[in-house]
Write a structure and sequence with these properties.
The chain contains 16 helices and 14 strands. The chain is of the alpha/beta class. An eight-stranded mixed beta sheet has the order 1-5-6-7-8-10-9-11, with helices on one face. Strands 4-3-2-12-13-14 form a six-stranded mixed beta sheet, with no helix packed on it.
Length: 467
């Protein structure tokens, strides 16, 4: 009885064509595909759009089937927002979705590059804001409208910058890159003064002839037991064999950046956990730092023996290594120019760049995979063949990827936030595990060794790099 009921439901949804009644021994109808089953739980128009534009594999679709119809509709609409061909459908459907779903869609709209080219997008967002009954949703629409308008301006600047570079006009390049910095702050809606974005001159954390031992972690400031476990493992390892300093790979505090330099999370989620290590950390910003107006500024302004954060991007030397900290949430033209010049000027034996988002990673999420394409287009051309390692977080996991053009890739995103999925069989993955942990880097003139460790301080993976 249950089998026939299921067939009737599928047939009613237009997902299954039943053969004419016949003998009992006739072949049974083919089982519905995962997409058929998913579409049956969605409103007809959303189901039709999912069939037309979504490309998730069967395994991911089956996982979605465990969601309630409301949760599934939200997931489908957010996924459709990432598909360029579905843009018009998504905008037309948003008035019928929940405020929560619309806000999630807006997060995709202001990040995914294909939306900037959508005709009259800013105007359509303004009309949706006008029609929104929920005042918080209206503000979200207006915020997205502003960000899209500024992104269009920045795209024009980018075209002019490319032309100025081609013409060999450094004065125009410099002027336009600084204008792009200002527009970037307007786009983000972040409260950070311009002087905080200017990187200082390269400084020395350790003398040039000194071997260096470093610890690094990302995606950690959650206040969870997992964060405490990782921090305790780092402190134990540092007690047995001291570190010279530490690095962070962004998303230093959840769910958004600090409210001020007096935010109690400094005491409870930073100083209490990492202060006992007795070293200075040199942080980078993650996307969660930019989720509050003052988050990035508060982290740069905070002063402590355990925390030194000169600007969103900066460089320093330590023994035979020069480190380049980068802000990857949105990479401005000024940052690209700075990094290119800083790498070119470096005479260090080893060059290590670190930031939040990955360039190559065992990515499971299609949305995060799209951001890797941005990193590969924006940051990778500056690094390829010129540095020795790129360290990052963002994906809440630990990973080590094949080197590409002499650059070695390590991910340490298991610092304490809820774990994410990894694709262990992803192309180029040497090690990939959805687990908590941290990494270490040790270097002298002869070699540089990078290792990944779990919360017991046991090694998962390591590589010694020589040249």
């Amino acid at each position: 009885m249950r089998y026939h009921t299921r067939c009737l439901l599928l047939a009613a949804g237009g997902l299954l064509v039943l053969p004419p009644a016949g003998r009992a021994d006739e072949a049974a109808p083919a089982a519905a595909s995962p997409m058929d089953a998913l579409a049956a739980k969605l409103p007809p128009e959303v189901g039709a759009a999912a069939r037309k534009w979504l490309h998730e594999d069967d395994k991911d679709l089956r996982a979605l089937l465990a969601f309630s119809p409301a949760e599934l509709e939200q997931e489908a609409m957010v996924a459709l927002a990432g598909e360029p061909a579905a843009a018009d459908f998504v905008l037309g459907r948003m008035p019928d979705e929940t405020a929560k779903t619309d806000r999630l869609i807006l997060k995709v709209i202001v990040v995914d590059s294909h939306w900037v080219g959508e005709p009259d997008l800013a105007g359509r967002l303004g009309k949706l804001a006008e029609a929104a009954a929920d005042p918080d949703l209206m503000l979200s629409y207006l915020d997205a409208q502003r960000r899209i308008e500024v992104r269009i301006q920045r795209a024009l600047l980018s075209d002019r910058l490319a032309a100025a570079r081609k013409d060999g006009d450094p004065k125009t390049v410099e002027a336009l890159s600084q204008a792009d910095e200002r527009l970037l702050m307007i786009e983000r809606g972040a409260s950070i003064p311009g002087y905080m974005r200017r990187p200082p001159a390269v400084f020395a954390a350790l003398p040039a002839a000194t071997p260096v031992r470093v610890v690094g972690m990302g995606d950690f400031g959650s206040g969870t037991q997992a964060q405490r476990d990782v921090a305790a493992a780092i402190v134990r390892m540092g007690g047995a064999k001291p570190f010279d300093f530490g690095l962070t790979f962004g998303d230093n505090f959840y769910p958004s950046g600090m409210t001020s330099t007096n935010d109690p999370r400094w005491r409870d989620w930073w100083e209490a956990l990492y202060g006992p290590l007795g070293v200075t950390f040199y942080p980078t910003l993650g996307n969660h730092e930019w989720y509050s107006d003052d988050g990035a500024a508060a982290e740069i302004e905070y002063r402590s023996p355990s925390w030194r954060f000169p600007s969103p991007y900066y460089s320093f030397t330590a023994g035979p290594v020069q480190f380049f900290a980068v802000d990857t949430s949105e990479i401005s033209e000024a940052e690209v120019i700075w990094l290119d010049r800083a790498i070119a000027a470096s005479t260090a034996r080893w060059k290590v760049v670190y930031g939040h988002h990955p360039i190559f990673a065992p990515e499971k999420s299609a949305k995060s995979g799209a951001y890797m394409k941005y990193m590969q287009a924006r940051l990778w051309p500056v690094l390829r063949g010129r540095v020795d390692a790129y360290l990052c977080g963002h994906q809440h996991a630990m990973a080590h990827m094949d080197p590409v053009e002499g650059v070695h890739f390590f991910m340490s995103g298991g610092g304490g936030a809820a774990l994410g999925k990894v694709s262990k069989k992803a192309s180029g993955a040497i090690f990939a595990e959805s687990t908590f942990g941290f990494l270490t880097l040790e270097a002298d003139e002869a070699a540089m060794k990078i290792g990944i460790f779990d919360t017991d301080g046991k090694p998962f993976d390591s590589e010694t790099i020589t040249k």
